[in-house]
């Protein structure tokens, strides 16, 4: 049984009415486990990611890129990236790229984009130059990591499951998930617990999303990126910072017996 509403309060009223209609009489009393988010567990703020418009295939195989090889069930790389450089099939044209056919995806950024960040801002982030045919005005670098934080789920959230959007691998224990929008038109790429980050929010940090390890920016750095007229080929992505009480760090996800990518 379920109910919907334009607000949480309306949804609860509609649910109570549905229960009473099914039961034929009485007054429904709702008890939520885990408890519903309270006023002090609302999202804190937004950070930003660079969603890529240009996908690129590589000459590499997944099993050759990770120290643990490839999971035979979910077909994702296991463990950390090894020391092998990515070899792209074509010359990049944009300043942000995502690999196609690799699981997880690798994010590749241009030298022009990385030049916006100071050495201090990226001293704990590892990049590795990629190889590609042809000539380009830019050099390009794969983000290796490590991820400073990981995405978390939301208590009471709805996880999308079409086309393996949300799943857990029984073999390698990897989890990936995608939450449905909490309100119409909302596009959120992930949620991060605010206390997992330093007290002073970094201008640039790394985030393990459902796609892979990617860069995240605070509002000031995002404004700086948008003001750079020479960058191209990316779209805005949003990550919400939330309080611990709202976060589900171990969401229950379907465990497919077979993956079809």
Characterise the protein shown here:
There is one protein chain. With 261 residues, the chain is α+β, with helices and mostly antiparallel strands. It folds into two domains: 1-31, no CATH class; 39-248, no CATH class. 12% of the residues lie in helices and 25% in strands. It is built from four helices and 15 strands. The chain has a six-stranded mixed beta sheet. Strands 2-3-4-6-5 form a five-stranded mixed beta sheet. A two-stranded antiparallel ribbon has the order 8-15. Strand 12 (204-208) and strand 13 form a beta hairpin.
Write a brief caption for the model.
With 261 residues, the chain is an alpha+beta fold.
End-to-end separation in angstroms reads 33 Å
Count of separate DSSP helical elements: 4
SSE run: HEEEEHHEEEEEEEEEHEE
Question: What number of structural domains do the residues give?
Answer: 2
Our Rg estimate from Cα atoms comes to 21 Å
Give the proportion of residues in helices: 10-25%
Biggest sheet features? 6 strands, mixed
Shape: globular
The side-by-side strand order for the widest beta sheet comes to: 7-12-13-1-14-11
| Low-pLDDT windows of residues | none
Mean pLDDT: 90
Structural class: alpha+beta
| Range of strand content | 15-25%
Number of strands: 15
Topology, element by element:
Elements: H1 8-23, E1 45-52, E2 54-57, E3 96-100, E4 107-110, H2 111-114, H3 119-122, E5 126-129, E6 140-145, E7 149-150, E8 153-154, E9 167-168, E10 175-176, E11 190-193, E12 204-208, E13 213-217, H4 219-226, E14 234-242, E15 247-248
Parallel strand pairs: 2-3, 7-12, 11-14
Antiparallel strand pairs: 1-13, 1-14, 3-4, 4-6, 5-6, 8-15, 9-10, 12-13
